[in-house]
Amino acid sequence: MFDISFENAKLFKDCVDAIVNLINEGEFEISSEGITLRAMDPSQIAMVDFKMPKKACSSYKVEGDVKIGVNFEDLSRVMGRARPEESLNLKLKDSRLEMTFKGKFTRRFNLPLLDIGGTVPKEPKIEFDANIKLNASVLKDSLKDASLVSSHVVLSIDKNSFVIEATGDRGDVLIETKKEETVVIAHECTNNAKAMFPLEYLNDILKGADSSTVITLYLKTDAPLKVEYPVGQAEIVYYLAPRIENV
């Protein structure tokens, strides 16, 4: 059993929005420490690792560890009805997720829970060679440029810069950001790193971040990309498999 409240429903809505872009169904694990979720997207190309500490909630009560399987598209539709001034309460009732919004009036939704089954995917153990930290707006704008010519991008980091490249029948694009540029918050590189990734997935990963959100990218040549950013007091991490070819 659990009874969890958010002073502002938008806090939970933003988290759901960041997950639903890649995951159709998943299982929240609710413990005395907080709410977590780790799941693969249907194509097994990307993984989402979500953590929300209990301090992010205005009220948090849980008896033992609870797992609830949810359809994120359905959950997202309900959360899309949240109004700015409303609070949100989540609880388990008759094997359903009861969601109560309170503002000028009270609205209550009940969603059926899913039996997800299976094992939780393990977090990839990768020793990344480079990482860069910058605002989401910078990265989103660069990916828009790349989308003009290709459906894939090559990301590379060396000791001096971060580069996004795209090549296709419609031309090619290169966006280079030197580490001393003001838009770069942090830049670390022990070895040059380079890999290719699908633009569609990168765009989905970044949808949950507003323009001022600080994004951290971790890169290793021809290894999964790690993308990390905060959502309120929660944290979300994505892993995206590379497209292996001569880049």
Can you tell me about this structure?
It is built from 4 helices and 18 strands. With about 250 residues, the protein is α+β, with helices and mostly antiparallel strands. It folds into 2 domains: about 1-110, Box (Proliferating Cell Nuclear Antigen); about 130-240, Proliferating Cell Nuclear Antigen (Box), CATH 3.70.10. A 9-stranded antiparallel beta sheet has the order 6-2-3-4-18-17-16-10-14. The chain has a 5-stranded antiparallel beta sheet with strand order 5-1-7-8-9. A 4-stranded antiparallel beta sheet has the order 13-12-11-15. Strand 17 and strand 18 form a beta hairpin. The relative contact order is 0.18. The model has no long low-confidence stretch (mean pLDDT about 95).
Task: Label this structure with key terms.
nine-stranded antiparallel sheet; 47% strand; alpha+beta; 2 domains; Proliferating Cell Nuclear Antigen; five-stranded antiparallel sheet; single chain; 247 residues; 18 strands; elongated; 4 helices
- Whole-number tally of structural domains: 2
Can you tell me the CATH topology of the largest domain? Proliferating Cell Nuclear Antigen
Oligomer: single chain
The helix-and-strand class reads alpha+beta
Q: Order of strands side by side in the largest beta sheet?
A: 6-2-3-4-18-17-16-10-14
H and E string: EHEEEEEHEEEEHEEEEEHEEE
Cα distance spanning the termini:
51 Å
Helix content: 10-25%
User: Could you tell me the mean pLDDT?
Assistant: 94
**Which CATH class of the largest domain?**
Alpha Beta
Number of helices: 4
Shape: elongated
As a whole number of angstroms, the C-alpha radius of gyration is: 19 Å
Low-confidence regions: none
What's the total count of β strands? 18
Beta-strand level of the residues, as a percent range? over 45%
Major sheet = 9 strands, antiparallel
The CATH architecture assignment of the largest domain turns out to be: Box
